[in-house]
Amino acid sequence: MLAEQISEIFNRCFYQSKTRLIGGASEPLYEPGEQEARVYFREDYASSALHEIAHWCIAGANRRQQTDYGYWYNGERDLGQQRTFEAVEVKPQALEWIFSVAAGIDFRVSCDNFDESTLNMSRFRADVRAAVIGWLDSLPPRADRFIHSLVEQTGNHQALKTDTYRELPK
Known about the structure:
By secondary structure, the protein is mainly α. The chain has helices at residues 3-13, 46-58, 79-103, 121-137, 141-154; strands at 19-25, 29-31, 37-42.
């Protein structure tokens, strides 16, 4: 599935929420707005679109009133900062994995840090997998709606089955 198709599905699915998904950005960004909120994803990357949608699906009403949901981004983190980043990122990446399966595209976890000495990819992969299993039992309402819209488009019903996530992600 292409990023353009993902955008069409999202924008159709969440038209009532006055939130639009927009590609072509040099960096991902969420901008709240009185008339319309905007979720920007990088270039035309489907995985970036799905990741940013995951953040939006998890963000509560207060977070959705803040630029980038009030989070920070730093590309180079020490060990403590990396663990904090991973704690925040595990749930959106788990949703992104479910979205990816539903959309029929590959998923890769990302610790998104230029300092590889702070990374423990196998632990983070296991944490993402555990979060997927947790989400499948109780999806956030917006995520549930989006996943079902993707599945309706692609027919990838395995996205909602626990057995699909038996192996750790790449």
